[in-house]
Write a structure and sequence with these properties.
It contains 7 helices and 12 strands. With about 250 residues, it is α/β, with parallel strands linked by helices. The protein has one domain: Ribokinase (UDP-N-acetylmuramoyl-L-alanine:D-glutamate ligase). Strands 4-1-7-8-9-10-11-12 form an 8-stranded mixed β-sheet, with helices on both faces. Helix 3 (about 120-130) links the parallel strand 7 (about 110-115) and strand 8 (about 135-140).
């Protein structure tokens, strides 16, 4: 059994579905006639759900405050025409929480899913990475990274372009996802199989969870990135934040 501690900002992804058949007489904006509402775990919680799909034993360490992202979607076109974010002030993580979590799960790896909503400060991120003697996988929106032999960073192309360039880890510890172009690592480009993209929401969480699972099994980063590419490709063919199911996992070779 693989044990993983997931640390980071979580949210509720809410989807308000309906039909848009007319414009408002008050302003030239679409009117949504609501038909249903769906809620799903998002951000760090979505990463944890994907890890669980692989049979990983997880513990999620996250904020108590409720962050909600509400998306309004026309069911006829599939078009999302508005997103409403409700983000309260978040209480930062404490060292006592981390110590208690480590005692509870004794993880094989730590996954830090840092959406920079306030739960993990720059100082907390550094302390988490430097005080843990097992693999740490970090997905972050922060602009200053650092090198440590047990820490692997996963960011997207925009986040990479925004980095402070004198605060970079070694190429062998930095994975950059490139959307439909796949991912880069250690001077290599890993191309995915082309798929019809429906929604990229949560694809980075799926990529990260799949990467961690495969790496803990094989200790081979190249095959882990290829595996994560396949998993993310499945995610983007579904609407909203999506976590893999048994059939998905079977189709990508597990």
């Amino acid at each position: 059994m693989i044990n993983v501690l997931v640390v980071g900002d979580k949210c509720t992804d809410k989807y308000v579905y309906g039909e848009c058949k007319r414009l408002s007489p008050e302003q030239p904006v679409p009117v949504l006639d609501q038909t249903r509402i769906e809620e799903r775990p998002g951000m760090a919680a979505n990463t944890e759900m994907n890890l669980r799909s692989f049979g990983v034993n997880t513990l999620l360490l996250s904020q108590r405050e409720v962050i909600t992202k509400t998306r309004f979607v026309d069911t006829n076109s599939g078009y999302q025409f508005m997103r409403l974010d409700e983000t309260p002030e978040v209480t930062p993580i404490t060292s006592a929480e981390v110590k208690m979590a480590l005692m509870h799960i004794n993880p094989d790896a730590i996954v830090i899913s840092d959406y920079d909503k306030g739960y993990i400060s720059d100082e907390n991120l550094w302390l988490l990475c430097n005080n843990i003697n097992r693999p740490v996988f970090v997905d972050t929106k922060k602009r200053r990274l650092f090198q440590k032999d047990n820490v692997y960073w996963k960011i997207n192309k925009k986040e990479y372009d925004d980095l402070v360039q004198d605060h970079l880890p070694n190429d062998s510890h930095l994975i950059v996802t490139l959307g439909s172009d796949g991912a880069s690592w250690n001077g290599l480009i890993f191309k995915p199989e082309p798929v019809k993209v429906f929604d990229v929401c949560g694809a980075g969480d799926t990529f990260m969870a799949s990467l961690v699972y495969k790496f803990l099994k094989t200790k081979d980063m190249s095959s882990s990135i290829e595996f994560a590419n396949k998993a993310a490709a499945i995610s983007v063919t579904h609407p909203g934040a999506y976590h893999l199911n048994k059939q998905d996992i079977k189709s990508i070779g597990e």
